[in-house]
Amino acid sequence: METISNIEIWQIFFMRLWPAWVSLAITFSVAYRFKKNLGAIGHLFDNPVGLIGLFIVLFWIYAAIFADLIALFDPLEQSGLYRRKPPGTVNASLGIPYIFGTDTLGRDLFSRMIHGSQIVLLIAPAASLVAYVVGITLGLPAGYIGGKFDTVLSFLANLVLAFPVILLFYLLVAPGIRETILPNIMAGVFFLFPIAFAVLIVYSRFSDRSNVLYPSLAVIFIIGAWLYLGLAFNSDPLGLVSIDPNELNIFAAVVFATSPGVFRLVRGLTMDIKTRDYVSAAMTRGEGRLFIMIWEILPNARGPLIVDSCLRIGYVTILLGTLGFFGLGMEPESPDWGSMINQTRSYIRLVPTIVLPPTLALASFVLGLNLLADGLREESVKD
For the segment 46-93, what is each residue's pLDDT rounded down to a tens digit? Predict the structure, then answer.
């Protein structure tokens, strides 16, 4: 079969990624122009480490957005004639090369790697965001009010954190659990927190302005109920919002396993910040507990929380890759990076480089998040 040279492989590789390069150029040009208005993100232009991390993270975001433009083949398309082919093998009927080769079913590894970024960027940030909402909603009152409420929640958080994370994930995404209603129950509980948090924000801000409060609450409840039914129970009356059962199971497992850590972080920050002078000043003005927690304490905890969120998304990405490697969570044909590593390692002796694309994709995304977190941490210390 016809093959192309290594130089041609890399030429095609960089050319196929043109939507990501163009998007990065536009993003960084605009961001540099308005860096003084972007806060900590703008300060990253003076921090090479953080800037490199931001570049890597944005690269994978744009790769996921433009995956259909970048990929050469359908990531699920199989070809019996092109099984286990090395990088650069050309599909004779189409005249298109398999840049990184093919797997045991003849699927293009480059296309699967690019589409795999969509899975990572769908589950890891979204699940981490919900975990943060859960942790913040419970951690703020636990740290500020304390008492039995804090004691009970701290005990439950420590109980979950006492389990080995890999074992906990294995139990939560096992096929036997997936076939029960437990994932839907867990998702039903977790998806209530964003609605409750939005209600608390609006109420704390506009409790004395009924003309703004009630319409805002109505909008929150209508949109929240619509999204809640679609995401948690796949019962969207409009049929627009839904989530795959396997993804829902992984989503619920991620939130369950990571929200206790967020809770402990928020609780600790709250206990420290509540002793500051500006909190005492708010209490002197007669502000209520809810207002102080949301508008005085939470904004001043954003630095450590943003840094931790980058690290936590990377941590979740590694967990998703681990689950995929062991064949847990996503469907077997799913192009997630962990599954790709597992599928290509069986013939690494024939093509030593075959396992590198998904491995480097996973490692580079996590590296970018870690570098971005380091840059943001340095900037938060300066502030």
Answer: 889 999 999 999 999 999 999 999 998 999 888 888 888 888 889 888
Please name the residues in contact with 184: beta carbons below 8 A apart, sequence gap of 6 or more: 232, 233, 248
Quickly list DSSP for 281-300.
HHHHTT--HHHHIIIIIHHH
Residue 264 CA neighbour count, 13 Å, CB half = 12
Nearest in space to 118 (alpha carbons), one of 77, 75, 79, 87 = 75
Answer whether 302's CB lies under 8 Å from 311's CB. no
Q: What is the largest CA-CA distance in the chain?
A: 80
pTM check: above 0.85: yes
CB 230 within 8 A of CB 236: yes
What is the DSSP annotation of 36-88? GGSTHHHHGGG-HHHHHHHHHHHHHHHHHHTHHHH-SS-TT---GGGTTPPTT
Residues 188-198: tens digit of each pLDDT:
999 999 999 99
Q: How far apart are CA 22 and CA 24, in angstroms?
A: 5
Distance CA 107, CA 77 (A): 6
The type of residue at 49 is V
- What span, in angstroms and rounded, lies between the C-alpha atoms of 172 and 180? 11
